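Supplementary Methods S3. Input chains for the assembly prediction are listed below.
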Amino acid sequence: MTQSSKNKSIEIETTLDDHRIAKLAAFAIGLHMLEAVFPSPLPGVKPGLANIVTLFVLYRFDFATAAWVSLLRVFASSLLLGNFLSPTFALSLSGALLSLAALFFAQYLPRRYFSAVTLSVFAAFAHMTGQLLVVRVWLIPHTGVAYLIPIFMAAALVFGVVNGLLTNYLLRINPAGLDEDKG
Amino acid sequence: MVSALKWSKPLLGDVLVILFGLFFVAYLFKGLWHNEHAAKLQIRLGDKIYASYSLDQNRNIDIQGPIGITRIVIANGKARFASSPCPNQYCVHQGWLSHKGQAAICLPNQVSLELLGGEKPFDSLNY
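Predicted structure tokens for the full assembly:
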């Protein structure tokens, strides 16, 4: 009896929100892993499927939950892929942070006219900007990087639109109120 | 929050944002990729302009720098460092330059070359 109560006392109190964030982050990490397996034509050009989860969470829950999910995904994925604190991780983190900053402002756009497609495009552009800043300032301090900017931004636009449409679709097939459904 | 059914398709604002994105990307391509072929080659030695040459000729230029002779070659509207006495050979490995605004530098020998079009795309460069 005393043993069991002792054990109980060192358990971390978790709320329903914690479980929800963990569950959603796990889903985002899964997508991140999936993407890491596929080779990309240019380093840095990736679909960013995990951003779909961030957008979905932003719409279904709130910005704070989306930020948690996004940042947990960056940290956990880097630990799983073994690139924590490496340049890859720095790129991922700076992209996620700028992407969240863009979403923070974009979420206030009138939803009558702007769907997840808009948010996704802004997030993708911001993500790419964050990555390019790290590349330019830290990794390749050379003006030649400028030649790659148009390609990266074009990729960001394409994947931003695709992810936005997918998010719209997921939001449609998972109507609000189903907290447990991750999409 | 709000009915999800309404967001299943891109809305008017989305289309505008996508168009804005397309213009943005097009602007980036236009601004950052000047594909205009250069007409002139300008060589600097130290802080002075050493000489300017037209690219409509084939010739070799030997320049005496602080650590030796750097050879620059002009051929078929392109220019390159052919040889330089520097240890790392970055300038030589940059290869042929043909577009306006491109530049190559050999820092150890203080020689730099820059391709110019009709007019320079920027006012100045500091090394």
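The radius of gyration of chain B is 22 Å. The CA atoms of residues 14 and 20 of chain B lie 10 Å apart.
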